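Researcher: We plan to redesign the surface later, but first we want a full-length starting point. Tokens attached.
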């Protein structure tokens, strides 16, 4: 791996680590520790300007982290590992086979959910509740898969990561 690719990969891991911290923090501020939500709870959460801001922040940070991992980190990691870099769906399959992500299909579902959260205004309270529950669960999956990729980079690529 060239020094430029090495440095870029380290910067990407550092960027995603910050995105991960920010996403977990905004989820905590917005949803607390709840795993299941009721439409009435979501209605209360978004009844103020602060709640709307947190909803938008959560959606944006969820989308940003997912985009950075799929579009930047995964291809850079595969390349550094000597693997071919292909289309995103193929990269997901390869990373799943390597044991670096739990389930490539979940990442495709995350992408669809990201598009809904970022590009659509979900005005049906039950649909919004379901979307927020899924985004919260996917946040944990992203966190865990990112940690697996990070551990792989430390162990097999000998990267010095925090």
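Model: Full-length starting sequence:
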């Amino acid at each position: 791996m060239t020094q430029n690719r090495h440095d870029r990969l380290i910067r990407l891991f550092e960027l995603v680590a910050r995105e991960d911290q920010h996403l977990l923090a905004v989820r905590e501020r917005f949803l607390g520790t709840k795993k299941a939500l009721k439409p009435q709870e979501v209605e209360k959460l978004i009844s103020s300007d602060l709640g709307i801001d947190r909803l938008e922040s959560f959606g944006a940070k969820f989308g940003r982290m997912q985009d950075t991992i799929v579009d930047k980190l995964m291809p850079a990691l595969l390349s550094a590992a000597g693997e071919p870099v292909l289309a995103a769906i193929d990269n997901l399959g390869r990373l799943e086979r390597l044991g670096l992500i739990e389930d490539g299909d979940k990442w495709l579902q995350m992408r669809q959910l990201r598009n809904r959260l970022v590009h659509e205004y979900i005005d049906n309270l039950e649909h919004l509740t379901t979307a927020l529950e899924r985004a919260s669960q996917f946040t944990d999956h992203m966190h865990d898969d990112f940690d697996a990729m990070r551990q792989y980079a430390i162990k097999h690529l000998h990267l010095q990561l925090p």
